[in-house]
């Protein structure tokens, strides 16, 4: 066991995934409240505007200090350090979300019990499933008229393709919501509405078959008891390994707004969610308790705090110990970095950070030295893999209204591109830049930010392309030489992206098929993993 093992073991790093309005903000706030990281409810609320991202985007900008400070939250609960990473709510920012999900070890899925599994949840889950991320399920809003719990369980199983193992089971719903039966502790936790209750103060009745429960809760209790019988017969036992492998998800019922069921979720995170594990790099697998520091940048946010106007690179520590003032090497560029003002994120405030361990997220202010996907080490040449970039599906060309501002436009776009807000392509022929996005809203955001952060009024215009594919060629198929032949023969439709990766741009999907037939040795990728 290394000296760092105890620190690694007490870390839990997770994200909440949900469809807008399911209760993510509310639950986040209650988790912070129950862990003691904040004292009063309401402080995360300011961030809420973000769920109306389309219309209120400018408004969000004003609140950015708050919204971003809460994009990573650290709290201590029991003996654990819990890092909660926020994921942007709007689906147009889903690329950003996918990258955030590469930095977590578990996900908490919040489901609105009235609506069941909704589209955004489904999409995010696919990403988690692809990575075998363990998922905990919280069924929220039991204080409303919602779907029957058996039907919900069934739907989640079908949609997720994983086995649901209920840890609690609701007694009634809406006006008749009586609380939850805890199948493992053999007790009922009685529901009292209201936001004032704090951890450990709810009423508990021991024994699931305690006759007092039938007397007090009547038909809803009888129904719940019957359902539990069914569930016990049908659902398999919870197996920790199956949960860690993403095959089983423990399910909890509650009502976040009423502080109900929140503590179970916190406990489950501590008891069930994994501590940081090994992470693959091209060169080797990196163990979290290794003595030497390493980490990977999974998110960059520019000009977060209007008072600082800096860019913060969010880095997940993969191994070792980060200490304030230490030297770090950016493996891609070989540059050395010695940031004095590395920040951590305790609830609402940025705080200066003294040390961090595997699983922790640190924020490094920098001016363009760090890019998405960068690996930082104490010197070793390591490159972590797996940070995804998706081929854009929407394209625009961009030029400046005032030609004297061309330089600012390029600088602004380079930064926004490095941040992952948009993908910027430089066509091999011609000088006009191309923007690529997965969601339409990304263009609006970029135009707004170019104007307000870089002082450039940009004209964003339709472009003829609709399909992009990154192109590579394996050594066995001719490698660089064959790739160059392809590039030379197709320069009219080739561009370089932010990291100079050659990209084929096409008008129609049919052209892609033709290209694949004509160039069998070239590989066309819809997904680029940073390497
Ligand atoms: P989001 O971040 O996933 O988008 O959801 P958010 O927490 O903002 O919650 C969406 C709405 O659902 C909010 O109501 C919130 O109060 C409500 N809500 C959250 N948990 C529960 C719950 O357990 N029961 C009930 N009944 N409602 C819940 P809102 O009217 O949009 O906002 P507000 O006026 O309450 O602030």
TrEMBL record:
<feature type="domain" description="Tr-type G">
    <location>
        <begin position="9"/>
        <end position="279"/>
    </location>
</feature>
<dbReference type="Pfam" id="PF22042">
    <property type="entry name" value="EF-G_D2"/>
</dbReference>
<feature type="binding site">
    <location>
        <begin position="86"/>
        <end position="90"/>
    </location>
    <ligand>
        <name>GTP</name>
    </ligand>
</feature>
<protein>
    <recommendedName>
        <fullName>Peptide chain release factor 3</fullName>
    </recommendedName>
</protein>
<dbReference type="InterPro" id="IPR035647">
    <property type="entry name" value="EFG_III/V"/>
</dbReference>
<dbReference type="InterPro" id="IPR005225">
    <property type="entry name" value="Small_GTP-bd"/>
</dbReference>
<dbReference type="InterPro" id="IPR032090">
    <property type="entry name" value="RF3_C"/>
</dbReference>
<dbReference type="InterPro" id="IPR009000">
    <property type="entry name" value="Transl_B-barrel_sf"/>
</dbReference>
<comment type="similarity">
    <text>Belongs to the TRAFAC class translation factor GTPase superfamily. Classic translation factor GTPase family. PrfC subfamily.</text>
</comment>
<dbReference type="InterPro" id="IPR038467">
    <property type="entry name" value="RF3_dom_3_sf"/>
</dbReference>
<dbReference type="InterPro" id="IPR031157">
    <property type="entry name" value="G_TR_CS"/>
</dbReference>
<dbReference type="InterPro" id="IPR041732">
    <property type="entry name" value="RF3_GTP-bd"/>
</dbReference>
<dbReference type="InterPro" id="IPR053905">
    <property type="entry name" value="EF-G-like_DII"/>
</dbReference>
<dbReference type="InterPro" id="IPR027417">
    <property type="entry name" value="P-loop_NTPase"/>
</dbReference>
<dbReference type="InterPro" id="IPR000795">
    <property type="entry name" value="T_Tr_GTP-bd_dom"/>
</dbReference>
<dbReference type="Pfam" id="PF00009">
    <property type="entry name" value="GTP_EFTU"/>
</dbReference>
<dbReference type="Pfam" id="PF16658">
    <property type="entry name" value="RF3_C"/>
</dbReference>
<keyword id="KW-0547">Nucleotide-binding</keyword>
<comment type="function">
    <text>Increases the formation of ribosomal termination complexes and stimulates activities of RF-1 and RF-2. It binds guanine nucleotides and has strong preference for UGA stop codons. It may interact directly with the ribosome. The stimulation of RF-1 and RF-2 is significantly reduced by GTP and GDP, but not by GMP.</text>
</comment>
<keyword id="KW-0648">Protein biosynthesis</keyword>
<feature type="binding site">
    <location>
        <begin position="140"/>
        <end position="143"/>
    </location>
    <ligand>
        <name>GTP</name>
    </ligand>
</feature>
<keyword id="KW-0963">Cytoplasm</keyword>
<dbReference type="InterPro" id="IPR004548">
    <property type="entry name" value="PrfC"/>
</dbReference>
<feature type="binding site">
    <location>
        <begin position="18"/>
        <end position="25"/>
    </location>
    <ligand>
        <name>GTP</name>
    </ligand>
</feature>
<keyword id="KW-0342">GTP-binding</keyword>
């Amino acid at each position: 066991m290394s000296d760092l093992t105890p620190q690694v073991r007490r870390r839990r790093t997770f994200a909440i995934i949900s469809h807008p309005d399911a209760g993510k903000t509310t639950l986040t706030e209650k988790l912070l409240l129950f862990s003691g990281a904040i004292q009063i409810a309401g402080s995360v609320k300011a961030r809420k505007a973000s769920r109306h991202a389309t219309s209120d985007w400018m408004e969000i900008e004003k609140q950015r200090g708050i919204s971003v400070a809460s994009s990573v939250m650290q709290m201590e609960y029991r003996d654990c350090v819990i890092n909660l990473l926020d994921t942007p709510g709007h689906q147009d920012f889903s690329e950003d979300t996918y990258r955030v999900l590469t930095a977590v070890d578990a996900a908490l899925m919040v489901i609105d019990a009235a609506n069941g599994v909704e589209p955004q949840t489904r999409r995010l889950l696919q990403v988690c499933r692809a990575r075998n991320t363990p998922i905990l399920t919280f069924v929220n809003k039991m204080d409303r008229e919602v779907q029957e719990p058996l039907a919900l369980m069934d739907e989640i199983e079908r949609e997720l393709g994983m086995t649901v193992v209920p840890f609690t089971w609701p007694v009634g719903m809406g006006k008749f919501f009586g609380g939850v039966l805890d199948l493992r502790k053999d007790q009922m936790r009685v529901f009292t509405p209201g936001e004032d209750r704090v951890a450990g103060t709810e009423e508990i009745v021991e024994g699931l078959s305690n006759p007092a429960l039938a007397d007090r809760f009547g038909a809803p209790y009888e129904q719940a008891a019957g359902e539990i019988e069914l569930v016990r017969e049908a659902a398999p036992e919870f197996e920790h390994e199956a949960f860690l492998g993403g095959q089983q998800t423990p399910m909890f019922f509650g009502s976040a707004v009423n502080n109900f069921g929140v503590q179970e979720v916190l406990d489950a995170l501590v008891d069930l969610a994994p501590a940081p594990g090994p992470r693959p790099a091209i060169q080797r697998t990196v163990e979290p308790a290794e003595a030497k520091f390493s980490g990977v940048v999974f998110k960059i946010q520019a000009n977060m705090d209007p008072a600082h106007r800096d860019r913060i690179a969010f880095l997940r520590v993969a191994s070792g110990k980060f200490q304030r003032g230490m030297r770090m090497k950016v493996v891609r560029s070989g540059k050395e970095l010695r940031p004095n003002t590395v920040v951590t994120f305790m609830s609402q405030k940025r705080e200066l950070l003294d040390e961090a361990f595997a699983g922790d997220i640190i924020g490094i202010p920098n001016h363009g030295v760090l890019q998405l996907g960068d690996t930082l080490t104490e010197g070793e040449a390591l490159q972590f893999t797996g940070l995804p970039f998706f081929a854009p599906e929407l394209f625009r060309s961009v030029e400046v209204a005032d030609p004297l501002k061309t330089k600012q436009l390029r600088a602004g776009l380079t930064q926004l591109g490095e941040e992952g807000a948009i993908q910027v392509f430089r066509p091999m022929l011609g000088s006009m830049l191309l923007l690529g996005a997965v969601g339409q809203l990304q263009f609006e955001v970029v135009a707004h930010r170019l104007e307000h952060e870089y002082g450039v009024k940009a004209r964003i215009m339709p472009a003829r392309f609709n399909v992009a594919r990154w192109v590579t060629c394996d050594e066995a198929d001719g490698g660089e030489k064959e790739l160059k032949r392809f590039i030379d023969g197709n320069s009219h439709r080739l561009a370089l992206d932010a990291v100079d990766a050659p990209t084929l741009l096409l008008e129609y999907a049919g052209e892609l098929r033709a290209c694949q037939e004509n160039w069998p040795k070239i590989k066309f990728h819809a997904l680029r993993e940073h390497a």
